[in-house]
Each structure stands twice: as structure tokens, then as C-alpha cells.
Input
Amino acid sequence: MKLKELWNYSGTVSTEIRFRSQLDANPASRSRVKEQPDRMKKQISNSGKASSFIAILFISLLAISSLLGGYVSTGSELSLLMVAMSTSMYLVFSFVLIFFLYLMQTTGFFSAGATLLPATLPLSQKDLENLTMLSFVRVFLAPVATTLVVFPLGSAVLYGPLSGLGSFLACLVTVLLSIGALLHASKWFSRKMREAPSSRAGTAVRVLAGVGAVVGMLLTYMMMNFIPDLIMLIGGSGLAIGSLQFTFLSLVFPFSFGIFVGAISAAGSLPLMTFLIAAMASSLYVGAGIMVFGYSRRTLKSATLGGIAGERATVGEEIDLEVVSPTRGLIRKDMRLVTRSLGSLSFFILPIVMAIIAIPIIAAPAGGLIRSMNALSGIVYASSFAGMGVVGLLSVDTEGASVYDGTPLSSTLTLKAKAYVFQVTHTLSMAAVAIVLSLYSLTTAYVMLIPVAQIPVGIAVAMSIGGFIFGKKGGGRVTAVNMGSDQIMMFQSLFISGLISVLPLVGYGLVLLQTGLHMLALLTQGLVATLAAVAAFRLAPRMLLD
Output
């Protein structure tokens, strides 16, 4: 089949890839696609266009910021160094942006069987492999094209065509390495998803990988605001680098490309040996990029011809049956569901992620002390999306109440099991806040105990929101929640979680203002949090039908 025909067909296949990847990454979409398939198809299509637009916007801003960071110092002693560092920073952030912007979608590409459609077509194996490769390329077309055009074109305009050519080669190698790393990470994560669900180590690995992926995405967005400052900081500190250290730096990717492009772009003296080493290292990385491209083709080929296998099933071994309590069994079931994809896992780890993002709010100014207000603000921010985490945990049961209609399980028992699961992440979230507080100088050691006294709130939030949703939407029975279609209920859940989370903190603040005693304020906070948990545990079952 001709390349033009394969390219035309790959458009349909890439749409299918996006569709299946979105369904696999978003647990709430699986039930909605059965109810409103046309609407879901349109929403997923719009989501794909929005992702492409965001990728183009971010990479374009990154390229412009990097070019300006190097160009403003042209003609000074910083000229070569600033161009080298700005190019290196652009390559680093391009690598990270492509990796994290498309991590969830690429993971869904492997785990959702996105190549099932082209496998049914009357094509030869070679055409099928090429079609899959082109379809995958179309998914990355927007960020790849932007990476390969904006920065090299700007370099050519500012410094000449030779600089533009060197920048294009550096960007091409960066794209190949980023996509190769992305495919490897997605393949590994998909394999972990298919390992024995009873493996505690496997579950821990999946949770940690999910935390790293989600935090990486958020940090990438946050770091975009500081690109010019980073370029100036690194460039300024580079004056203290000696010739030997600078030569060693030319061996490391992406500084080898940055130094090479800086040497041919800006007026400045660079030792011949350093230039030759940078050129040789860049050539080696070009070869590595070609090898990674071959690896990417083989990875896509394996996905086309059978997907990613997990643990091999063994035949003939005895099966051990373990009798556990219904609550423990439901907890195991929920843990298997939330770790089956990166999308559902992101809801489970949301409280932990919010605690990590709250670190800048908690941190005191240089030389300052952490006061109770810093801790209270950090806890409020970390708990602000607790309702979304609970709703996300409820949404993993995508079939809704039909899962439980034929089972002799009470709705109260199911809700309690989900509350226990949420309590784990809430406890880890508060522990993260306490650890961050311990790293700073505190006005009093009692400040570090504020997040500890907030731990019982997790049960109160989960039981209250679960009872409200099951009672209002499910008529007292267990039901799933679609965050896309049930937006009103989502906002109501956020309001409930915010109200419950703030009450103990308000008690702490009022007692501290009246008495000035941190110990008494902590006791008040812990008492209010415990009473909220006990009240939710007793009142929520009254809204359910068993």
C-alpha cells in the first residue's frame, strides 16, 4: 500500500486510538459511552483538539522564552553561554512536556487495545505495522511539529541558517528520545496493570508510579512560568564554571547540543577541544536517537501483533482460597479498580498530590518561621479537592448499582469500605504536610501536630459525601458518579468536603485567638474532627437502603 493511502487511513485509526485511550484513562467515561455514545465521541474529539492546542501553546511559549533568554545577551561575554543554556533548557523542557502531556494517553494506547481496529483490516503485516506507526505519529503531530519548527526557525532568523540547522537536529533527537522514553514508560506501566492484582508490591509500585506521573505533569505546568528566570540563573552561574567543567558538561545531553549550537550561533571564544567534544557527543546522541526510533517501531509492532503481556498464567498449580471479611474484600476490589489505569489512579492519589502542591503555601519566607497560619492555609489547600477524590473513588464502579443489585451486600458496608480506602490517602496527605512542616523552623512544635489532628476528617468527608450521593442519586443504593455529566453533584460534594474540612481548623483558630494556648487549640481541633467522623459514621447509613 502506498504511503499516501496509509497516511489517509491512519487518520481514522488515530481517532480510534484517542477514543480508546480516553476511555481507558477516564473511568467515568466508560459508563457514559454506553448511555450517550455520540456525545462522548464529540467530547473526546474536542478534548483531543484541546490537548493539541495546549501542547502547541506551551511549546511555542517555551521556544520564544528560550530564544529571548539567549538573544538579549548577544554581544556580551555571556553571549555564547546564554545561547548554549537557553538551547539546553528548551531541549530539557521539550522532552518533559512531550513526555508528561501524553503519558496518560500513551498508556491508554497499550492498555485499551487501541490497535484492535486496524488488526481487523485486510492488510499485510508490514502495512499494518506502518499504519500503526503513522497513526501513532498523528497523535503526536502537533507537539512534534511545533518543537521542530518554532525554535529552529527562530534560531535561523536570529543567528543564521547554520544555527537553525543545528537547532533542528537537536530538537529532532530530543523528540525521538522523548517519545522513546514515553513508550517505554507506558509499556512498563501497562504491564504492571496486568500483573497479579493480589500482589501488594505491584499495587505499591502502581500507586508510586501514578503519584510520580501526576506530580510530574503538575510540576511541568508550574515550571513553565519560571523558564526565563531559570535561563538567566543558570547562565549567570555558568560564569563560575571553569574550562574543565565546561568541557565535561559538553558530554552530557542536552548540554552537548546546547554548547554546539551556542558555538556556531553567538560570537564568543570556545576552546577547540571543547567544541570538538561537544560535536562528537552530539553525533553520539544522534545515533542514540536513531536507535531509540528503531526501539519505538518495535514497541509499536509488539502492540500491533498482540499487545503488552503481563504475568504468565501457570497451569497445574493449586489455587489457594482465602476467606476474608466482606469489608476487606470490598477494599481489595476497590484497590484493584483504582490501580487498573492511570486515569482512575489519579483520583485515588489526588489528596497526596494536593499536599505536595501545597508546599509553596506552607513554606515561610527566607529566614522566617512557620506559624500556625501557614499550616492552616496548607491544610485548607490540600483538602480543597477532597470531594473530587471521593467522587473519583465512587466512579470506579462504572456499571453503577447493577454491580451490587445481585449481591447480598449492604450499601452501608460498601460505603464504609470506600471510606476506609479514602482514609488511607487522606492520612498520607496529612503525613506529607506534617513532614514538610518538620523541615522548617516553627514558632512552636505544636504547629507540626495540626495535620495530625486533622486525620479523622477523612472518614467524615468520605462517609458524608458517599451517603449524600447514594441517598440522592441512587435512592439509597450504591451508584456510580460521572463527573462530566453530574457537575451539580460534583460541586455539592466539593462544598460538603470543604465545610467538613474547615470546621476543625476554625475551632483551632478560635480557641487560639481566645486563649493563645496551642495545646488547647489542638485538643479542640482533634475533638471537632473526631465528632465529625463519629457523626458521619452514624448519620450517613440513615440515608441508605440495605
